[in-house]
Amino acid sequence: MARIYCYKTKNGRSTWFLDYTFKGKRYRKKVGTSKKVALLELKDIEVRISKGEYKFEPNQITIKEFFEIFNKYSSVNHAPSTFKRYKAIVDNFLFYLESKRDVAYLSDLHSELFEDFKIFRRTTPLNYREFAKTNTVNMELVSLGTMFNYAIKCNYLKENPTESVQKLKVTDAKKPRFLTEEEVDLLLQSCGEYLYPIFFTFLNTGMRLGELIHLTWKDVDLKQKKIHIVSKEFWNPKTGERTIPMNEEIKNLLKELKSKSIGSLFVFPGKNGEKLKLKLRERFMTITKKCGFPDVTKIHSLRHTFASHLVMKGVDLPTVKNLMGHSDIQTTMIYAHLAPDHLADAVEKLEF
After folding, report:
1. What is d(CA 169, CA 166) in angstroms, rounded to the nearest whole number?
2. I want to staple 162 with a disulfide (CB 3.0 to 4.6 A). Which of 55, 145, 178, 200 is the partner?
3. What's the CATH number of domain 63-153, 2.60.120, 1.10.150, 1.10.10, 1.20.1300?
């Protein structure tokens, strides 16, 4: 099956694309602004495919045109915060490319360009801000890689230009602020009956805020003691699907919540059983200030607390990585400094 379709940019300009299947694989190709030319090229491709004379070539699309297409895709398929982050990264990359007059098309991108981009981001302040930290640069490289994987899927590229680009060694990352056991006890005692199950679940599962908000009873297997973080029609996990085992305390808490839920789709519903829209951070900051640790201002600190206490209790970093749903072990390494005793114990096990 083959067809043509039109894509309109923000300035109202129409661009025609081909959409067809060749050897069981779907392809999209940019033609131009003329519908007539698009129809003629579509006919030509159909004839060549039928004769076995067709050879696929990646579509020549400009970098700016691709990012416009990706932004449109992201606005529909990603959470608003993710879309906003991707858009900011695109703006940073396009600003960097302004001085690269010989780089206009997606096919012009190469690994050396991204090695230079790393230097640019570490040495050039944008929007009157300080230089980008190594973690920020690494995150931008990963995000750009994700965008170019989408370009490959759409047949704008044959391979990802960021694939061989190494991440920067992180030396300037802040140690994550986590709660001590005493602070955890105080928080749970002070948060009230409504917030207690939410904070307790964060602390015992390490879930992200979005994961907890979109958790449904269908995702909870009390019998097998597992929580499944899975994609839904209205939401996708940040780093893919995963399974989190429940400890006995979480199992009992969720079992009790389920017995009280009346036909609610969500485990932690908002008003009328809808998705939770409570301003959790504001409530959290009020409580931590009251408890005497006002420097803890983000819900994400509960996720850090989960990971930090696991490491301090001797759980290895690869296991923590899987439980947290990190896409890269480098992200988990921010907790490595908490495991000196565990590493020493490991060495003691040698008996040569």
Report:
1. 9
2. 145
3. 1.10.150
Residue linked to tokens 């602004």: 33
Chunk the chain into consecutive blocks of 10 residues (it has 352) and report each block's average pLDDT, rounded to whole numbers: 72 74 67 82 79 62 91 87 91 91 84 92 77 88 93 87 86 82 96 95 95 94 95 84 94 93 86 80 94 94 94 90 87 81 63 69
Q: What is the DSSP string of 255-301?
A: HHHHHH-SS-SBSS--GGG------HHHHHHHHHHHHT-TT---THH
Domain 181-347 sits in which CATH superfamily?
Answer: Intergrase catalytic core (1.10.443.10)
CA 197 → CA 8, 82, 254, 272, distances in Å?
Answer: 47, 27, 8, 18
Query: Which residues lie across from 28 on neighbouring strands?
Result: 19
Look at residue 105 and give its three-state secondary structure: strand
